[in-house]
């Protein structure tokens, strides 16, 4: 597949000069002219999108004395096109696309787990686990193309040695992937990630290359799973489960007029999973991926390259743009384009929609309220459909029956114009890091107006899996069959076909639960819920046993080795500022204009600090993505310690999984062990020391009592700390981590017991239809 002729390809300033037949100095002057396309950053370079630059040059005639044999009226755009036509495209071998009906190979997951085991820590060094997953994704991407870049990687992995050889190999991998991304119109991004990796030995890196070389085509999506888990993506970026993406693609494709879409669009593409599902399903229906127009907008600068690689590996030629603005803005990518299929999982606005209708923008179904974009995205999706097109959009359940007047009017207009085809309620806990209940709305172009709407309740399908719920192939098929009317009376997905009048009677609600009698006890549903709760209880019980064993062993080892510091040999007394960089949170004036309750980067407030950890709360506030990029100095990393700056002083929290790459709020202070002291102080020990009642009391005594307690970074830096030898610190941190895990496991077990009790009550009190049909003793039937 050749992708060098891609209209979205990015060019450097020198390449633009070569295409136009001018000097680089001339391009520098052009950049100062009105309307010249803005650059995008690609590592240390500035790059320009080909289509935008050529369109700008179309308006610039070449002066007569510079025509060089060109006819009068020739523009620089004409010269650039002629230059492109005479340049042979860079050909790369086509990847082997994922087969639409292929089942995942269990061995693939085992291989990816091996790569994510000890090899991860040995290869990443000072880099993060996310950087390491980027390495795996990059290697797999080059491997699936199976071209000269991969051959060079294999050759270098066999012949290189030492740290210099490892750095050279990582640099080659990053440059090769970045070049492919640039040819696809995506800004280069891998060099910045891979340069942070520090393999302990060249042999470890060689082994990673060998293992990735053995992976099949389905492994990339497993790597996306690992990336999402390790990056702790916020609600605006976590990926759509592949099973949900398959349901959306299969049903939405059936709703299109032709049944074989040639164009697909996602205005909030995340990791490209919805576009990939559509591409894969259409390929199974006989539509070659390279013939499809696959377009997306992503707001995640880090996930955008993964989306491009994901789609390219499916055989598509994707156009994925990074944009911080709303997709319905006139200047947004694809704002004037129309597509036969639109799939999207936009960020949810979970705040109450009490705002007034917005005055700006064009809203064919009514202006959405200020401060809530749920139905703004829905209208953008509808406006992006070509005649005969269809769409599927994930919406929070409350968007379907909110009482806000603007949203109710929008739903009414959508129903009256017949653009709502169906709505499916999904199970909770499908998505990472959130339990927000959601539905999928299936929409059609007004040319296919519907008189009735099908509602489906799929909340009971799926299988519990370590705190989440997953949908298997049979669950996906059950939902699709129910939509087609093939589910039968024993289907696990109750349905209802409702007229417009009936929707009006329910106050224009698009929530499936308002149209399917979900409140009357159902024996089968109650039995399923009880079985699920018992399975969850069994899992949590097993986790408690494991955690109890780990804590017992840790305490036993501590007792065997003797109490810590009996002779206080090797201990030292220091102050906190000698060990850590102490950073106060940003000012409120810097944050307030960018804060949102919707998607973005989460903020850590004092109330997020609980039991020595950072906990995600239902009302977490965020900072919009683009402003967040300018606040990197306030981001949190694994091993950081977060303390209260203003408010009720309590124990600090150690950043483990939740909280990684979040931003500090104004009212917290971050402690980060200085690089020169990494071998002197263990973050886990330091967090535990600062969490002692004596240390917390020290802070409270020094917190000023003006309105609310507050401590400055300078005052906190004077806090005394006693450090044993590093090995002793590791021992302390290990024992306390085992106890923390034990406490967390027991907490989860307690919640599972409560849920099981609720499920058992429902099971015992659900009527048995068979027994209800029997006549009571002593009475005639």
From TrEMBL:
EC number assigned by the record: 2.1.1.72
Q: Which GO terms describe its biological process?
A: DNA restriction-modification system; methylation
Top-level taxon of origin? Bacteria
Q: What's the catalysed reaction?
A: a 2'-deoxyadenosine in DNA + S-adenosyl-L-methionine = an N(6)-methyl-2'-deoxyadenosine in DNA + S-adenosyl-L-homocysteine + H(+)
Q: To which species is this protein native? A: Streptomyces sp. NBC_01401
Keywords assigned by UniProt, alphabetized: DNA-binding, Methyltransferase, Plasmid, Restriction system, S-adenosyl-L-methionine, Transferase
PROSITE patterns, alphabetized: N6_MTASE
Which InterPro entries does the record associate with it? DNA-bd_dom_put_sf, DNA_Adenine_Mtase, DNA_methylase_A-5, DNA_methylase_N6_adenine_CS, Restrct_endonuc_typeI_TRD, Restrct_endonuc_typeI_TRD_sf, SAM-dependent_MTases_sf, WH-like_DNA-bd_sf
Is Protein biosynthesis among this UniProt entry's keywords? Answer: no
Q: Taking every annotated instance into account, which residue ranges of this chain make up the domain Type I restriction modification DNA specificity?
A: 569-743
Q: Where are stretches of biased composition, namely Low complexity?
A: 85-98
According to the record, the residues making up region (Disordered) are 81-109
Residues of the DNA methylase adenine-specific domain: 219-518
Give the protein name, as stated in the record: site-specific DNA-methyltransferase (adenine-specific)
What family does this chain come from, according to its entry? Belongs to the type-I restriction system S methylase family.
* GO MF annotations, alphabetized: DNA binding; N-methyltransferase activity; site-specific DNA-methyltransferase (adenine-specific) activity
Q: Which CDD domains match?
A: RMtype1_S_TRD-CR_like
